[in-house]
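ligand=NDP
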Amino acid sequence: MENKVPIVPVVSSFSGLTMPVICMGTASYPPVDAGTLKSAIVEAIRAGYRHFDTAFIYGSEQPLGAAIAEALNIGLIKSRNELFITSKLWCTYAEPDLVIPAIKMSLENLQLEYLDLYLIHWPLKFSKEVSRLPVPKEEVSVIDIKSVWSAMEECQLLGLTKAIGVSNFSSRKLEEILSFAKIPPAVNQVEMNPLWQQKELNEYCKAKGIHVSAHSPLGSKGTLWGDNRIFDCHALKEIAEAKGKTIAQICLRWVYEQGASVIAKSFNKKRMEENLEIFDWSLSVEELEKIRGLPQCKFNSIGTFIEPSAELEAQL
Ligand SMILES: NC(=O)C1=CN([C@@H]2O[C@H](COP(=O)(O)OP(=O)(O)OC[C@H]3O[C@@H](n4cnc5c(N)ncnc54)[C@H](OP(=O)(O)O)[C@@H]3O)[C@@H](O)[C@H]2O)C=CC1
Ligand SMILES: O=C[C@H](O)[C@@H](O)[C@@H](O)[C@H](O)C(=O)O
């Protein structure tokens, strides 16, 4: 099958790496069982997805690995190289000595030799195994970014991943990394959708050559922290109706037109296919203007999984 998803270059990888701009998310809240997850991923590969987003904390690395093995087995793909796999360093391992063991654990879960992209999941470090949610604030501190980034660089130099980046980082934290990085972050994966547009961060990243990947582009409907605000948004509904598209497609197209890539999660075959149909039409200037004026609200923040701490927030 011809793949119609555009690709973007991943700068700062050594190998002319490219990344498909639509990625299938694998986090689900509440979590689904491994068999369901594996089948959904095989279905997504069949539908044309070639980029998958996982993380140690999601528990989805093993089912993703099993799905890749099955896709190879049944001939949906000929080689693992046809896929782009992103995973993330969880906060419990955000210490220089733990980074390489952590990526090796992820690779073992995935049954892969290398990742395409490894991200620091949050600019946070947990002092011990997290025993409860929300994580007590005494167990959380801001990551020592210099030493952890150096270990991330080592992961790339060792060939454990083709590129490295971050997630949920502010421009302030990125500025810090750029001041000492030998390999600059290729990607910053952040929440981004028409109701949380990330205009300034996106402009900052563009200026620095850091690609933005948008997680929760549909407002994380169905998760602990997400809701239906996007699907209930009157202005988005009007644009969708006028264009004969769905609200989801309007959101995903909007993200794409901001120069970012899209990480949407759907385990439903019809919606997986729908979410790929965003490349043969565009939003008009008036529609973009209307979206620009939408009131903003953040869905996913550290407050959803750690105890509130103004002191910590002020350092991020
Ligand atoms: N780096 C980070 O900190 C974070 C990363 N992520 C990553 O991003 C991915 C996506 O973000 P997520 O928060 O899951 O939220 P999304 O914004 O992708 O929303 C997912 C929800 O939207 C539904 N949905 C998907 N497509 C459609 C459609 N066309 N029409 C209507 N409903 C639709 C899904 O249901 P259904 O499956 O039934 O279609 C699901 O309930 C995650 O899976 C994860 O990989 C997410 C949060 C934080
Ligand atoms: O336990 C912690 C939370 O689930 C946290 O992992 C999510 O908010 C998240 O960043 C994600 O990537 O989905």
